[in-house]
Amino acid sequence: MSPEPQRLFIGGGWTEPADGHYEVIDPATEEVVGLAPEASRAQVHEAAAAAKEAFGPWSRTRPEERAAILDRAADIIQRDLPAHADLARAESGATASTARGMQVAVGAARFRRYARGALEPVEEAIAPQINEAGPMGRAGVFGALTVRQPVGVVTCITSYNNPWANPAGKVAPALAMGNTVVVKPAPQDPLSVYRMAAALAEAGVPPGVVNVVTGSGAEAGEAAVDSPDVDMVSFTGSTAVGQRIAEACGRGMKRQLMELGGKGAALVLEDADLSSAVAGIGTTFSFYSGQICTAPTRVLVHRSRQDELIAGLAAYAGRLTVGHPADRATVVGPVISAAHRDGVEAYVELGRKEGARVVTGGARPVHLDRGFYVAPTLLADCTNDMRVVREEIFGPVVVVVPFDEDEEGVALANDSDYGLIDYVWSGDVARAFRLARRLRAGGVGVNTVGRNMEAPFGGFKKSGVGRDVGSYALHAYSETQAIVWPG
Q: The Aldehyde dehydrogenase domain covers which part of the protein (predicted)?
């Protein structure tokens, strides 16, 4: 990691921050990874103004030119993947394999995907309409065309759990559609996003098209939302922060794309293959140390299979190695910060007080005296009114609630403020699909936690607004215009 303090990226240049720097901490060692810049409010607005100035020329570039730049950026990111993965591991706490394969490699893949996306058609013909003569004019046949146009300046506020894939999933489709961006990374691990900006600059992105600003508090993000030059905000993070951003966007009628919290329900029926369910649900214990909104952390199991499933999940958790992310044997690394670790531990203690039984975990790993580690924890004997069942914990904690009939299971799954991704495990696929259609969630996995990366992604209820991924992201970062003419 570079010992040099990081500078802001504004208008195509590297700019000294007005308010100094703050330390980025390795959650595995509690050591300083680097120094991130503290942007002033004026500098964030300067970045938005640079993006606005660059929007006109960039939006008029040929799609082939935008595609070529995004492709080159993917090549450059891939070229430097080992160094990028080391930094991502150090600042996010992800395991080495996750940082390499699920963070940096996925980030490069998303630039590659939206290089192709830049070439997707943006026009769609509408069937001609015959109009009778009237107050609006003479009779005639009227043709129509819908055209997807870029929105303008997009503020991208990204999450800490994946400092490559999440920003790339916003920046790449936004640029492909001809928008310009102001990126405000999560304060905990922003340094990787500056690496992404450097790759885009090397790939030939014109000055002002991509800008990156950071800050340790809320001020930089607030300025990136309320700037009068910003037309849209794309946010990934907590529902509470998303609500505040939505209020600010509403005052300016700014477009929004919100990917917010989740408390995914895993509906395990009496005819389920429990080995498959355990393997799928068990990944939430380990993947990003439970810091992933799509995890099935709320397990709803048919009462006849409850004991068997709990035993399987406990055994799965017992096989997970908790340790330093750089160690090859490590499956579960630290959570992002001391404050977040304390919050997860407080939820476990709350679960005890609410009457939940701690089957496994519930204490800090005794062999690790530094770092923000949480032992994978399984809570049983839970009921749907408990806060540990209803609230997003965002850590390696899974709760189990039994049900007796399909109707009750669906009702429990839907009795939630969230609706991002739910899951159904059943030996009868037709039955699983019928139940999936009744779940109030943006996505449902049937006998899998895998995803199709062209399928739309987003949530019902307080889990978000809008859809992205695949071609749906191109639609999310565009406005639809109608053009009508007489035939």
A: 14-483
pLDDT recorded at residue 1: 45
Residues 248 and 279 in one domain: no
Specify whether the CB–CB gap between 238 and 261 falls below 8 A: yes
Nearest-angstrom CA–CA distance, 184 and 156: 6
Query: CA angle, 233 as apex, 229 and 237 as ends, to 5°?
Result: 145
Beta carbons of 8 and 37 less than 8 angstroms apart:
yes
For residue 415, give the DSSP letter: S
CA distance 37 to 413: 43
249 catalytic? Reply is: no
Quick one: pLDDT at residue 284? Answer: 84
Q: Which pLDDT does position 48 carry in this prediction?
A: 98
Please indicate, yes or no, whether the overall pTM of this predicted structure exceeds 0.90: yes
Catalytic residue among 38, 46, 91, 259: 259
Domain assignment of residue 403, given as a range: 265-454
List Cβ neighbours of 140 (8 Å cut-off, separation of 6 or more): 130, 131, 486, 487
Low-confidence residues of the chain, pLDDT below 50? Answer: 1-2
Q: How many residues does the chain have?
A: 487
Residue 293 is a catalytic residue: yes
Do 303 and 403 have their domain in common? yes
- The helix (run of H) or strand (run of E) holding residue 359 is strand 357-360
Q: Do 435 and 473 share a structural domain? A: no
Give pLDDT, residue 136.
78
Question: How high is the pLDDT of residue 3?
Answer: 59
Three-state DSSP state, 340: helix
Instruction: Check whether residue 307 and residue 428 sit in a common domain.
Output: yes
Classify each residue of 116-134 as buried b or exposed e, where b means 16 or more C-beta atoms within 10 Å of its C-beta: ebbeeebeeeeeeeeeeee
Residue (of 476, 449, 472) closest to 235 by Cα position: 476
Q: Are 125 and 145 in contact (CB under 8 A)?
A: yes
